[in-house]
Amino acid sequence: MVDAGDMNDVVVVRWPHDAARIDDLRGNGTARLLLVEPSAPPPEIADPLEDWVRMPASEEDVRARIRGLELRVGIEQARQPVLDGDGILHLGGRSVVLPPVEARLAAELVDRMGSVVPRDVLTKAGWPEGVPNRNLLDVRILRLRRRLEPLGLEVRTVRHRGYLMALSEI
Question: How far apart are CA 137 and CA 132, in angstroms?
């Protein structure tokens, strides 16, 4: 039988015995396979990086669940943009080179993918020494939008709050 532990990108844990560890893994975005004790109620799953199997389960069944989770991890990673140290933004096998200011703006947006990044945070990231013009952020965001379009990414304006990066809805 497969013991609780790490298997590639998937962590195998016992439910509900390791509930505290599972919460930490969820918070870290780590894929988890929950081995559910025979008398325990099944866990509620609301995350594609989590699955469960009731014990006792065959090693073949456990390995099949792990393989399924590994595939989901790969899909999730392909949907997450990555900005490398050279200012190249990668997503799903495609990439775009960003000028330094736009790379700094993109870094903030990528780090908070799907969340609003306030204008002042972006301004400080783009121009650590101070922005010379109030509208310069808007101009750079416009340019960044154009560069990201071929990757299937968009930067959305959230009025009176800031901007957020998201996958384009195609």
Answer: 10
Q: Contact, 68 vs 51, CB < 8 A?
A: yes
For 126-160, give the secondary structure using H, E and C: HCCCCCCCCCHHHHHHHHHHHHHHHHCEEEEEECC
**What's the CA gap between 145 and 83, in Å, rounded?**
15
CA distances from 99 to 73, 88, 106, 114, 158 (A): 30, 9, 10, 22, 24
Reduced 3-state DSSP string for the chain: CCCCEEECCEEEEEECCCHHHHHHHHHHCCEEEEEECCCCCCCCCCCCCEEEEECCCCHHHHHHHHHHHHHHHHHHHHCCCEECCCCEEEECCEEEECCHHHHHHHHHHHHCCCCCEEHHHHHHHHCCCCCCCCCHHHHHHHHHHHHHHHHCEEEEEECCCEEEEEECCC
The pTM (predicted TM-score) of the whole model is: 0.59
**Per residue in 51-106, pLDDT tens?**
999 999 999 999 999 999 988 877 666 678 989 999 999 987 789 999 999 999 99
